[in-house]
């Protein structure tokens, strides 16, 4: 299990990405995946805003 800790800018793009994984070997691939994420632009009061301290969970399932 990993968590991506990030901010999301007013365009919906991740910034200031950090990863925290229970198995450290997944940090690099999780970080790479996070750089390709895109969200619907966050809105508040009808205008796009920046979100800070977003936690995005990621779970890896390995086949035996």
Structure description:
The chain is mainly beta and 64 residues long. The chain is 14% helix and 42% strand. It is built from one helix and five strands. It has one helix at 27-35, and strands at residues 2-8, 14-21, 43-44, 47-48, 51-58. The strands form two sheets. A three-stranded antiparallel beta sheet has the order 2-1-5, with helices on one face. A two-stranded antiparallel sheet has the order 3-4. A hairpin with a 2-residue loop joins strand 3 (43-44) and strand 4.
Keywords:
mainly beta; 3-stranded antiparallel beta sheet; 1 helix; 42% strand; two-stranded antiparallel sheet; single chain; 64 residues; 5 strands
> Oligomeric status of the shown chains?
single chain
Q: How many helical stretches? A: 1
Taking the alpha carbons of the first and last residues, their distance comes to 17 Å
Structural class: mainly beta
Proportion of beta-strand residues: 35-45%
Please give the number of β-strands. 5
Mean pLDDT: 94
Strand order of the largest sheet: 2-1-5
Order of helices and strands: EEHEEE
| Low-confidence segments | none
- Judging from the principal axes of the Cα atoms, what is the shape? elongated
Rg value: 13 Å
């Amino acid at each position: 299990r990993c968590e991506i800790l990030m901010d999301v800018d007013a365009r919906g793009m991740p910034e200031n990405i950090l990863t925290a994984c229970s198995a450290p070997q997944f940090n690099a691939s999780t970080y790479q995946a996070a750089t390709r994420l895109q969200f619907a632009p966050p809105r508040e009061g009808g205008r796009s805003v920046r979100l800070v301290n977003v936690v995005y969970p990621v779970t890896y399932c390995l086949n035996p």
